[in-house]
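Today's session is about reading a structure prediction critically. Students often jump straight to the picture, but the first step is always the sequence itself: look for stretches that repeat, for charged clusters, for runs of hydrophobic residues. Only then move on to the predicted structure, which in these notes is written as discrete structure tokens rather than atom positions. Here is the chain we will use throughout the hour.
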Amino acid sequence: MKNKADKKKGEKADILAMNERKLHKASNLCGNLKKTRVIAKKPQKVVTNLKKIDLVKKEVKSSKQN
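Below is the predicted structure for this chain, in token form.
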């Protein structure tokens, strides 16, 4: 019985270690992505969407007034 429990603990520790490595790799990738220009362009799309939302709000207000 102890051997099975020890094996399970060992497997869990291995899985946790693997997950930590994956997280570390992912964080490194994110760090590299932040340096690229692609992410810097994304906020511009958000700004255009906000402008569209403002236009829609103005249209709704004008239709309510009429």
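Discussion point for the tutorial: The first helix runs from residue 2 to 34.
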